[in-house]
Design brief:
Elements (H helix, E strand, L loop, with lengths): L3 E6 L3 E6 L2 E6 L7 E5 L1 E6 L12 H10 L2 E6 L10 H14 L3 E2 L17 H4 L6 E2 L8 H14 L2 E4 L12 E2 L2 H6 L3 E2 L2 H17 L2 E4 L5 H13 L3 E5 L1 H5 L20 H13 L4 E2 L14 H4 L10 H10 L6 H16 L7 E11 L18 E11 L2 E5 L1
Parallel strand pairs: 5-6, 6-7, 8-9, 9-12, 10-11, 12-13, 13-14
Antiparallel strand pairs: 1-2, 2-3, 4-15, 15-16, 16-17
Helix pairs in contact: 4-6, 6-7, 7-9
């Protein structure tokens, strides 16, 4: 006789497991919009451990990811110690092995201590990382980036770059646009992003390196990457949900609206959406960047850069892009599952999440499993609730 276990039930349906198989069972006469998705993959998160566990930990961050339907995430290397050699990386790997509830595959840094002066020990980390990045810092010296790309090419690994020209920042902290001028804020110009992308795609073409651009936010960045692909450079890129849904017109005098790169103009947002539609933008990543509450309560000027996003990404994208007819649900799955996994060679395994797409609710940071609570989407009404996430056959999140 099969042993049947009811995992959960609401007024519309129940989810049973029997002999290793899942089944959705109607418990009412109403139709339910329940969908099973392959496990989402986020190639750009910050889990803050080791070094900054007061912001987030591998345990809390991976649980938050599972809550958002993610079964694979790739944490960036701005940690303490920076994973710039295998000994430092192993500290992170040991915590992942002990505490992660989903697949967590880290980055190694490109340069020692992410300082851009000396190449990190890429070869000794190569078998244990998804790619190399100095995320949070642009590599300023062209020759150093060329050396990193050549070594990554030899190792057949991706270089993922946070593109930012330091000399063009001028102390800015939001987009150098209408809102900054009207409210007396220091702006970050678009050129600080696209100028370094322009340099890097040229280097990628010259070296043959697999190159990935992190969190693009400007219309110029989209066009540069579009042209680079047409030239045959091995280039991909990502953007984040907040750049597709918000722009500088949505800014408030609150640290939860501060991230790097900043929210840009409406024209930039429209160009990003066009980039999704024509395939220039390959994937959506969250840049989940948790901070302690007292680091985000100092307004736009003095708060830390970064917002949380891994628990709200799918509901926001489904609500604002799919339900509004901008992209199809199939396209969204391609951006969250197929493309990142293919590009970064991250197998799916027996991993999936189950969602009630009809569930409507208001985003409430108090319900987050992340230690970080700063989101510009607090109070926004969305559709789509994660009911269950399974990673490699094991339940990672259950409502």
């Amino acid at each position: 006789m099969l042993k049947k276990v009811r995992l959960f039930q609401n007024d519309k349906y129940a989810l049973d497991v029997a002999d290793g198989f899942l089944s959705l069972v109607s418990v009412s006469n109403e139709e339910s919009n329940i969908v099973i998705f392959p496990g989402f993959c986020d190639v750009h998160v910050h889990l803050r451990e080791p070094g900054f566990s007061y912001k987030e930990t591998i345990a809390s961050g991976s649980k938050a990811a599972a809550h958002g339907g993610y079964t694979t995430v790739c944490p960036m290397p701005n940690l303490k110690p920076v994973p710039d050699n295998f000994a430092n990386l192993k500290q992170e790997l040991d915590i992942i092995e002990r505490d992660a509830v989903i697949e967590v595959i880290p980055y190694g840094s490109c340069t020692v201590n992410e300082e851009g002066q000396e190449m990190a020990s890429l070869e000794e980390m190569n078998d244990h990382v998804c790619a190399f990045s100095d995320d949070g810092k642009g590599i300023q010296q062209e020759e150093m980036m060329r050396q990193v790309m050549l070594e990554a090419k030899r190792l057949d690994k991706i270089v993922a770059a946070h593109c930012e020209v330091n000399d063009l920042l001028h102390g800015g902290y939001i987009h150098d646009g209408i809102y900054a001028k009207q409210h007396g804020h220091k702006g970050i110009c678009s050129e600080s992003e696209w100028k370094e992308i322009e340099r890097d795609v040229r280097l990628a073409y010259e070296t043959g390196c697999k190159y990935h651009v992190c969190h693009i936010s400007t219309k110029e960045s989209v066009e540069i990457i579009r042209k680079a692909k047409k030239m045959g450079a091995d280039v991909t890129c990502e953007t984040a949900p907040h750049y597709l849904i918000l722009d500088e017109n949505d800014l408030q005098e609150d640290g939860k609206f501060k991230m790097n790169p900043p929210l840009r103009s409406m024209e930039d947002r429209e160009a990003l959406i066009e980039g999704l539609l024509d395939g220039t933008i390959d994937m959506i990543a969250t840049d989940h960047a948790p901070h302690a509450a007292n680091e985000k309560d100092k307004g736009l000027a003095k708060s830390a850069f970064g917002i949380v996003g891994i628990e709200t990404a799918f509901p926001l994208l489904y609500t604002y892009l799919v339900k509004k007819g901008i992209i199809s649900l199939e396209k969204l799955v391609e951006l969250l599952v197929d493309n990142p996994r293919k590009r970064f060679n991250l197998p799916l395994g027996n991993s999936y999440s189950i969602w009630d797409l009809d569930k409507k609710y208001t985003i409430d940071p108090d319900t987050f499993l992340s230690q970080g609570k700063a989101t510009p989407f607090e109070g926004v009404e969305v559709y789509g609730e994660c009911l269950l996430t399974v990673c490699n056959g094991k339940i990672a999140y259950q409502k």
